[in-house]
Specification:
Elements: H1 3-9, E1 11-14, H2 20-33, E2 37-39, H3 47-56, E3 65-70, H4 77-91, E4 96-101, H5 111-122, E5 126-132, H6 136-145, E6 150-156, H7 164-173, E7 177-180, H8 192-199, H9 205-215, E8 220-222, H10 227-234, H11 243-252
Parallel strand pairs: 1-2, 1-8, 2-3, 3-4, 4-5, 5-6, 6-7
Amino acid sequence: MNIYFQNTYQRSFGTFPLTERELRDAMMIAGETGYRSFDTAQMYGNEKETGDALSELGITRDEICVTTKVHPDNFGEEAFLLSVEESLKKLQLDYVDVLLLHWPPVGGDIAPSLKLLEQAHAKGLTRNIGVSNYTARMMRDATKIIGTPLVTNQVEFHPLLNQDVLLAAATETGIPLSSYCSVARGEVFKHPMFEEIGQGYGKTAGQVVLRWILQKGVSINTMSTKRTNIAANFDIMDFTLSSIDMDRIDAMTHSGYRIVTDDLVPWAPNWD
């Protein structure tokens, strides 16, 4: 994994649940703002519009990092590679930079889909591979099943949910975490502490939350359709939270506010 990829992937622009003109306009603003990493998925139903927007950005291919994810319905041996090739067609790309398994398979046997993911890498359909929504045990098992390094486990990660078990597994396995639901779909803004902390740095509550995530060693995915928010989400590299403020935010993780449960998504595993 090269340094450019590592730095670019720290801040990705997420595309869920955007479609059509709204997606195109948001991606144009994100590109103008400085985003070079874009995250989509087969499940989102917007790979075609994402590809159209990428072609409009006017940014060379080697400057862009594109992530997509394989839907669990395509984890079968016949469907997997065909689905990835279809994703590439929609994205108008010869390869993606990161290909993820979007969810663990129903039934819990992670080996077959991991091996198919590794095949996609071997065929040059992706530069890097990873997973999403894996538990700590799955992370440990994955390193024994395939030899190709996994560059991320993309999970729900925000200051209202304790993910210390996954952070420990990331250190143990060498599989870094990346976040979705980075501001808990707005729930963090109900807590005045984040705004209070931000005032000391000249930053917004949202920027404080995103900076906390980065300082936990986790890459971030954010989505907005508003220019000011897109810019603010990107502008988080020029300050560092103190250890005191990090500890104050850490204490909030015991709120136990989890968004993605098996009531919402049938593939959700038994979380750590």
